[in-house]
Design a protein that fits this description.
It is a single chain. The chain has a domain of 106 residues. The longest helix has 23 residues. It has eight helices and no strands. The model has no long low-confidence stretch (mean pLDDT 83). The chain is 52% helix and 0% strand.
């Protein structure tokens, strides 16, 4: 026996089906606010990035502070002339060493005060550059936050200052303290004790 659907039954069925809402491209809930997927790199992009890195790869380690200064100026000048983004990673290669050595120099380990200052100043320059780029919308903010935390010492932090204070004041009279404690003790009769 076939069942016949009434208009009311069809309306009830239609009401149960979920309504799929279109999400906006930009704005609240937008699907393109922060692209989370990098589209496939084109071979031209890969070649360009490799050329950029090879510009600095394979250089000998700087021998003294003056050579370090010259190499850093050359690094930033080359980035400017070739349109490359100056990064800490490329700076490390331009100095002919590894990031651990540059980190040590930044901490003043195994180098002079002059070299430590040069490294700090160069990293500050890169931090300033990246900050300006993110402000202008040229670098993804999430990428900047990651780099700022990993290379420039920035962190999410909230400082809470606790000041220890005694509610009884700085100097407490022993007799007054004992009388306060006795007054605050419950009466033993309140607990059914004999």
């Amino acid at each position: 026996m076939a069942t016949r659907k009434t208009k009311k039954a069809e309306a009830d069925t239609a009401a149960v089906e979920p309504v799929k809402k279109e999400r906006p491209l930009r704005g609240r809930g937008g699907t393109a606010n922060f692209p989370s997927v990098i589209s496939g790199a084109k071979s031209e992009d890969i070649s360009r990035c490799l050329r950029n890195c090879l510009t600095f790869y394979g250089l000998p380690i700087v021998r003294d502070d003056e050579e370090c200064r010259e190499r850093l100026y050359w690094f930033f000048d080359t980035c400017e002339k070739t349109g490359q983004l100056p990064t800490v990673e490329k700076m490390v290669m331009a100095l002919g060493t590894i990031k651990q050595t540059v980190w040590n120099w930044e901490q003043g380990i195994g180098c002079s005060q002059v070299r430590m200052d040069l490294i700090k100043k160069a990293k500050g320059f890169i931090a300033s550059f990246e900050s300006e780029m993110v402000t202008e919308g040229k670098i993804n903010p999430v990428v900047y936050i990651f780099r700022a935390k990993n290379y420039f010492g920035m962190k999410d932090q909230q400082d809470v200052v606790l000041k220890p204070e005694s509610p009884l004041g700085d100097k407490v009279d022993q007799a007054r303290l004992e009388s306060t404690i006795v007054q605050e003790l419950p009466d033993p009769g309140d607990y059914g004790a004999d």
